[in-house]
């Protein structure tokens, strides 16, 4: 006899499988920044966010190893108890300098960052306006805050302004939240206009720049692309171009001090392992020493978008939207048979009817590898 919990789970799994929406894990070894090992085969990956290949950079690995030798594998407690290894302050100072803010706070992950930051500043009676394509963890943070949460149309400042005008009056504090570089579309938010709208309506602006750091502009992310943009909360991760794990937010010192004393995902969660912090510092050193690396991912992405007559890539991410989940899965299987990994992204990660291959480019991809991908994709492109 099956218990009701197991029966519930099995029923859900069957439903998802019937609509090609079941997700399963595939053990995947990554021994360098470009190739992955899956199912006994070696594939060129266009699905990793390791945009600069730094997860396997010798200096980054050496820094992590040295930190393990000195400090061990874990932080031992929340940062507010005994987990605030001295490397945290060093990394926070580096990130604040990079972003041009007074201070920064490190989080365990990007998900934990947005889930922690948003409820720290807004709550019941307040308003959050979120770009409809913003990352899932921004929505989770909004939900945790219990503030009224309203989506605005993707990158549509007129819609945002209209919603600010109609809803702002009733609300207490108001927060606008968006990705800087959109994770599944690779396009960039119009931060100067969004920030102007925010100021006009006395709203705060949070930008998640997980996919901007190390890739966009001079490598410091999207905010600096916009001369006028004032981003109150500059959030990002250490898990993409930085090649490791963890996240940060940069802001004024009082904002950061308040986060450190009140954000639940800082207060009640163990500090990152010191090795992650050391690796991030070393990765930032590599980027500072070799700034030319930063141009690599977008150059490769543009090589593909030009060859396939797609809009020019704005970031390291290029979506090949195929429509139904089954089509995206079939395309991914076809590419995999050709030695290329481009994982199918399906709802609810992307809106229904926009299942896609989400391509992510690295400075470590060769032109030949990109050209191989271009040829493999041609038969799948809508005519
Ligand atoms: N924000 C964005 C835009 C992301 O794409 C991701 C993850 N891919 C996250 C936040 C979550 O970051 P993490 O993986 O460090 O939890």
Please give a structural write-up:
The protein is an alpha/beta fold and 383 residues long. The chain folds into two domains: 28-55 and 291-380, Aspartate Aminotransferase, domain 1; 75-272, Type I PLP-dependent aspartate aminotransferase-like (Major domain) (Aspartate Aminotransferase, domain 2), CATH 3.40.640. It is 41% helix and 17% strand. It has helices spanning 4-18, 58-71, 79-83, 86-99, 110-121, 136-145, 157-167, 191-200, 253-262, 264-267, 274-289, 295-307, 325-337, 367-377, and strands at 28-29, 35-38, 41-45, 103-107, 127-131, 148-152, 174-179, 204-208, 233-237, 247-251, 317-323, 340-341, 344-345, 355-360. A seven-stranded mixed sheet has the order 4-10-9-8-7-5-6, sandwiched between helices. A four-stranded mixed sheet has the order 1-2-3-12. The chain has a three-stranded antiparallel sheet with strand order 11-14-13, with helices on one face. β5 (127-131), α6 (136-145) and β6 (148-152) form a beta-alpha-beta unit. α2 (58-71) runs antiparallel to α11 and α5 (110-121) runs parallel beside α6 (136-145). The longest helix is centred in the last third of the chain and has 16 residues, at 274-289. The radius of gyration is 21 Å and the shape is globular. The protein starts with a helix and ends in a 6-residue tail after the last helix. The mean pLDDT is 97. Bound molecules: 4'-deoxy-4'-aminopyridoxal-5'-phosphate (PMP).
